[in-house]
Amino acid sequence: MRLPSAPSKWALPAAAFTAAAVAAAILLRFDPSRTKWMPRCLFHTLTGLYCPGCGATRSLHALLHGHVAAALRWNVLAIPLLVFLALLLWRPQWGLRRAVTYPALAVIVLFWILRNIPYHPFTLLAPGRL
What we know:
Low-confidence stretches: none
Shape: globular
Number of strands: 0
Order of helices and strands: HHHHHH
Radius of gyration: 18 Å
Largest sheet: none
Distance between the termini: 62 Å
Structural class: mainly alpha
Number of helices: 6
Mean pLDDT: 89
């Protein structure tokens, strides 16, 4: 009887790439603003406040269609976060460094706070307002 071999070092990246490709195909085809079956933000539904990810799905939909300005209006942090995640996929060890993770978390928390302040110019950070 032969024991199963260890998964390839490419199994996880291949699965992640496949999942991202399927998600991108769905977002390319369906507009999250017009579908009822795409999930809504639970945090926003319960509190009425915007989380750091509010508008990110609509932002990615706009980005996939080449509308960068619209993508930034939905969530100004979505595009830089995509670049950051791509860098972490390229160099995963960077995610273990405090000099990388703490500033990234600080930016996300600061964005979360600022986009919920109900005064101009902070209201520009709300989804669809920029």
